[in-house]
Target: Putative E3 ubiquitin-protein ligase HERC4
Amino acid sequence: MLSSYHSSNNHMRSMSLLCCGNTSDGQLGLGGIAEENVRSLTLVESTKNFLKIRQIACGRHHSVMLLDDGSVFSCGNNDFYQLGHDGIKRKPRLIESFVGIHVISVACGDAHCVALTNDGHLFSWGSNVYGQLGVERMNVVAKARYPRIQEINLANIVQIACGSNHSLALESTDGVLHAWGLNDHGQLGIGTRESFIGPTTVNKLMGIPICQLAAGASHSLVLTPSGTVFGWGKNMFGQIGQNEQRDILYPSLVKLLRTQKVIRLACGEDFSVAVTATGGLFTFGAGTYGQLGHGNQNSELFPKQVMELMGSVVLDVACGRCHTLAITENKLYAFGLNTSGQLGLLNVKHTTSIPLPIPIEKQPRKVFAGADFSFVLCSEPNGDDDGGGDNKAITVPSFPVKHLSLSFVRHLINEEPEHLYDFVETVMTSLCCLNGSFLQSGNDRFGVTERHSCINMDEAMETFLLLSDYCTAHPKVESIMVRSVEVSLIPSLRSSLIDIEFARVYLILPWCHIFSFSKYYRNIVVPFTLCLSDQNSTTWEFLESWWSCLAVRHLNRILKVFKQMACFFIDNLMNEHGWYGQNRNSFPVIAIKSALDVLSHLNKVNVKVRKIPFSSFYIDDLEKKINLRDDFLQTMNEDKQCSNRFLFCHYPFILNAVAKSILFQVNVAVEMVIAQVREYFFISVSRNNIIEDTFKQLIVATSYDLKRPLKVQFVGEDADDLGGLKKEFFMLIFQELFNPKYGMFVEYEESRYTWFAHYNFEEPQTYEYVGILCGMTIYNNVIAALPFPLALYKKLLNEPVTLEDLKELSPTEGRCLEEMLDYDDDDFESVFGVNFQISLPCLDKVETVELKPGGADINVTKANRQEYVDLYVDYKLNQMVLHQFEAFKKGFNRVVAGCIIPMFQPLELMECIIGNQQYDWVAFEKGTQYRGEYWRQDPTIVLFWEVFHEMSLEQKKKFLLFVTGSDRVPFQGMDQIKMIIQPCFGGEEYYPVAHTCFNLIDLPKYKSKEILAKKLLEAIEHNQGFTVV
Model:
């Protein structure tokens, strides 16, 4: 009744117009008939010559018909000049004022009309009691040409809608929504009840892409291309889908329609309807006369699907004051009030709350409704009209506002480059245009959720790359883009969002090439970053979830933009004044903090999805640019009141191995000062009784003792521990502890990883000692060969373990669980045949444990398989070894607990203890030092490096083990090894000798490459681990 929207593509050619309902004022266009009410569908004879009816807009007692050629006809009540011509007219009459003007859409309120022309201009006529015409007084020029029809001061309008006494209009250039007229229930959406004579902007919807408008008597609805619905105004009956029976003064999300793929809205007086892409019909609001179609006369506060029409595909819908019309594939349904015959159902006297088919011989194509009357555009069954055959296609509304798409930008560049300038300026100025750009096709464009932004990020990437290439050859386009973003787009960003669709700009814009140039940082990238970092927790939950679904190329782009910006300002500060002379509220510091805040969210996502190497977040050489030691000390000393101040150590993910090793050394030094440590922690052990001897000394050791530098003495040996004995001690004791004869740990043969045994008889304190020893390796900078998987280090850092962790420990077991999750056939239970319990080997028998109470009697099905897998993983990696791990963790934390360990990623902590295999043999050679007669170009040294670089990887690893006592690379990198080569006495018959205490090798002066290779390979092949001299 009170809203009017039909796509300009739906042209009704050569069709019959039928009508029914009240015609007391001639609104049906039937002429001077005696009846006030027409109770069955009747042909409107006066429109037979209207070959191309495009749309019919209906008011309370009048109708306006728009033809495909842009001409406008009207009939019905004319008390307020709402017909646009003189007199009461019972047959459609041409509105001569529009002759020569091409009208493409019309909308009617109770007694006013608005017309939209093909050049985006608006005209209005009729009642202006509440300012619903959008003009205060008649324009003198317009009056001379169009008596009583006035032009509204708006341009570039693409869509319109009218309520009883208010009007809405949408701009095509920037997507701005304008409203004017009566506002007693907040139907203008501006936050007050003040009525407006002229158009005013609905600011709350700025940045939200809108594709359709609809208006009821005193409420308004809009629809986005992704199917999101917002409503505002009167909500006494729930007509805007909010659980508050009061006026809503600002646009509010209709949450229950978010995932329904809505493509069409319509409004009655106090109710609303929504059509979905699958042809479903939802209604809500006043149901007093059954107009909601739910089989009762109740009002509905929330959208509810019309069950009677389930199974049918609703193609079009129209709402009168208290009735509803709906077209399905081959039927026309009506429900609601019928006192004036507006339903076209002769057997319904008053109301029907169930959708009933209207008897009709022709094929219904489109429906329109006024207060108490209805129109149906029909064709002959299987007729040869534009609609053709039965109705089957559901029309999905396009986004009528200018927006970016790869195909259109490519078209402009190739075919109409002269129009590209204006297009870029328009789109890059408007948040709405950008947020409506790059929408996915088909059903993927609907339903914005935490996992689905509806944006085709690959299209966004390719479009901006295309524009970047074009801007290289045409700098003027880049200048326009920069000015648009800087002057208009950036100032329109805000931290308070009405809906998450607004946040799409934060996904899209980083691909714009201007974000890569430092010259645009101050005025564009930094303000953008500040607004992004300032988003509330709800927005960040969505953004993080969207990021987690992105391909690696898009995550890398986000990382590059913000990391590059942070590095730029860090480098500039270093070059100008140095870091600690800076005011922490200065622009560069604020820029760095905002960039790192954004990167912290990206890192949080990456910790979960692990798509980017964590090393990609490192800011290299940061330890050379700022005083990391002082930064870390401030972090250690800060209290909760100062925790918001900016410190680099608040962002540990940007710190590389070198930086973190520096911080670890600072942490050790501080703890040793606190403990007043002045000497070593000595351990004296027998090689034959190393575990018992060690544990006896750990029992009496204090936490302070454990933080002292370790020195080891083997009983009966005189060697002084300069580092080599310590290495050998850790190697021997861990070899013994992980020996299967003790039963403390179990090795998984397939992965060669070790896990805690669940059936051992050791006291928990034994595991605590193992944890202490692991912690001591870090404190003493020793690489230990611990065969634990990454899961151990995740647990030490309180990170959850997953199926991937079980798969690493036990590959076959993990793959079986993955196959269970991926199985799609219906014979799931017969194929897997498992229940909620787990079988475990326990010495010489098998033990069965329930994963949940009563698990033995609960079958695993497709519905509950995820729960089963989660419980299985939790039991194997957590519950089964709970006491053993907690004791281990307690011991570990006795040594290294503090603010430094949480700064590590699990893999970093793992590499800190066991090293890594990121070999850089060039760096190894470069870092080598020479003593005595040897130097880099000495003939023996030249031969040595020739032989070394010709070795296989396994031989090089054995050489590393020979020299350092470990075949793995220190956490800080290979350049930390610092091997020393010195000459030794003896001839070529002698072998090289390694001093692992100092990473030193005695190399005889070989003169032959063959002899050097032979002696060196024999030395490393027959060395049991390393030689202590």
